[in-house]
Amino acid sequence: MPATTSDLYLKTRQVQHRYGGCSHMFIERRLKNDPTFPRPVFMGRLRFWKLSELEQWEQASVERAEKAVRQ
């Protein structure tokens, strides 16, 4: 059975690449300061992010920014 988008998990480096090659600290700051940023799933010591949760966060961020511009 093929994996769907909601089944995909990204490693930390893949998340960094998704956001323009951002630093490790960018991710850490989002986790500390942004309660809406998706939390990772731990498998052993490795962190993984569910792609569908990142996509939802991105969409919500865009909507918040658009709403702020319209005000």
Helices and strands in order, then pairings?
Elements: E1 9-11, H1 12-18, H2 24-33, E2 41-43, E3 46-50, H3 51-70
Antiparallel strand pairs: 1-3, 2-3
Protein name: Helix-turn-helix transcriptional regulator
Description:
With 71 residues, the protein is an alpha+beta fold. Helices cover 52% and strands 15% of the residues. It has one domain (8-70). It has 3 helices and 3 strands, in the order βααββα. A 3-stranded antiparallel beta sheet has the order 1-3-2. It is globular. The mean pLDDT is 92.
Keywords:
71 residues; alpha+beta; 52% helix; 15% strand
Shape: globular
Which regions have little confidence, pLDDT < 50, spanning 5+ residues? none
Helix-and-strand structural type: alpha+beta
Q: For the record, give the distance between the C-alpha atoms at the N and C termini, rounded to a whole number.
A: 46 Å
The neighbouring-strand order within the major sheet is 1-3-2
What proportion of the residues is helical, as a percent range?
40-55%
Strand content: 15-25%
- Count of helix runs: 3
Mean pLDDT level: 92
User: Could you give the order of the helices and strands?
Assistant: EHHEEH
Largest β sheet strand count, sense and barrel closure = 3 strands, antiparallel
Count of the domains: 1
Q: How many DSSP E strands? A: 3
Give me the Rg, rounded.
13 Å
Organism: Bradyrhizobium sp. LLZ17
Protein name: Helix-turn-helix transcriptional regulator
